[in-house]
Structure prediction request, 516 residues.
Amino acid sequence: MSAAATSSSRELPPPADNITRHTLSPESELRIEIPTGISSTITLRSGSAELFGAELAIDRPLHLTSAKVAIFTWHGCILDVSNQDQLDIIYASDETDANVSYVNTHAQLEAMRDEALGNSANPNAAPATATVETTMTTATTAVGGPRVLLVGPADCGKSSLARVLTAYAVKLGRTPILVDLDASQNMLSVPGTIAAIPVSSDMISPDCYGTSSIMGGSSSSASGGAMMPLVLWYGSQDLTAHPDVYKAQLSKLGHAIDERLSGDTDANASGIIVNTSGLIEDIGYQYLLHAIEAFRINVVLVLGHDRLYSMLGTQFKKDYEGGGGPMRKAPILIKLPRSGGVVSRDASFRRALRSQSIKRYFYGNSTPPKSSDGPSSSNYQFSPCLIEVRMADIQLHKLSNISLAASLLPISAKQSTDPIQLSTIPSSEITSKFQHSVLAVCHPSAVEKYEHSGSARDLYLAGVAGFVIVEKVDVDKASMSLLSPCGGSLPSGHLLSGDIFWLDNDSLEPAQLQFD
Ligand SMILES: Nc1ncnc2c1ncn2[C@@H]1O[C@H](COP(=O)(O)OP(=O)(O)OP(=O)(O)O)[C@@H](O)[C@H]1O
Prediction:
């Protein structure tokens, strides 16, 4: 993507003892798997290289912990890697055809952005013919910019490609909105959420990839000036648990994005890039179709899954062209190869990533230790606080999907038709079983609406103010200690529970809370 750095021919001093030097040829990548709890530092010594689209700076060490990544170079480079003997694997590969496909896809999206800008500058112009050549015949002219949905099974490289496409767009001065619908491994916020953020250039830095998070979590803008994401609390990493809530949240997020883009020509032309979870069968497939509607998707990128590609192609023909319904344009459907470097992550590695992501929300990025590569001596950007709240001052809600048959309802009680229902947990039931659970703090404006309407939707379909973790429940004192990103009182006393737990030893398995 970029010209080779000017330092490509400079004389390099020999590497230190614990450093291994790698020379990469053009269009190759260094694939690195750093096991859980181990750190490694990668330094670009000459040439140019990028980490999922974010360019490395010469001589600036990139500190990575528990990560599986690839450093790609278009023009060749020299990289120094520390701690190599502790890595699971490290190797250079020139099988990078997928990267070339990705940059071609980026070029196609750019053409759509240019076209959207042209259309907005001259709204009376006759619509141009399709600019994107695709493997599907229903190519269409985008009214706004590209609204891209990345789909495919687990561990096929969706999140990585979302990062690459976002970084490439931002490098060209675009401001796309990045959306992550994967509640189990969300790259924008803590697990259990779906989120969206307008991306600017200060967020595209390799330093932000220290964990699974592109921007270092919802509170940890490295630049200090970056925007906060809009985060909805789904409350579970299991997307099959609450289909009604999930679908309603997708619709709400799509609506919020439409509202944001409607008054901003540049942002509208930049479009959105939506990452999805690896669920592609049954309810997962339904979610993909729902997301296409909710985000008014006009480009679907299918990563390495012929069957899904074929299913969507058939579906689009049926939904958009047949049946005598209104003729709408089908999204452009593009099949992309899976990168040869993409690795499967086992349950324990995923758990470690989730834990890192929660830790990062509260503590920020870890700064590299001075003397060794061990994470234990790291310092962190932020200092979260323990705050004490009285049970009397909070209302802890949980989702309840109970829907009674009419005959079981009390006389004159109405059956609610809204499947999204809340129940408020009585103080007497807030016991030590909530210890270590992650709670979402409702935004005061959402609380105001909720108190007026009594509708669970006003809390569940609104962006949350932030998160706390229950450190301790003191039943005798009727109080709780909460780990909070900052001191002082909570933005509101309304908290949403879920089944996400966190303990600062990277080992706690999230478990379903069993409520009585
Ligand atoms: N070219 C590559 N070389 C090495 N590792 C890679 C490469 N591309 C991606 N990875 C790593 O492979 C893992 C899986 O990739 P990614 O997270 O993009 O997949 P995904 O489809 O989003 O997964 P899921 O949907 O299950 O969350 C990640 O750890 C990612 O950093």
The domain at 16-94 is CATH 2.60.120.1030 (Jelly Rolls). The chain has three domains: 16-94, 97-336, 384-496.
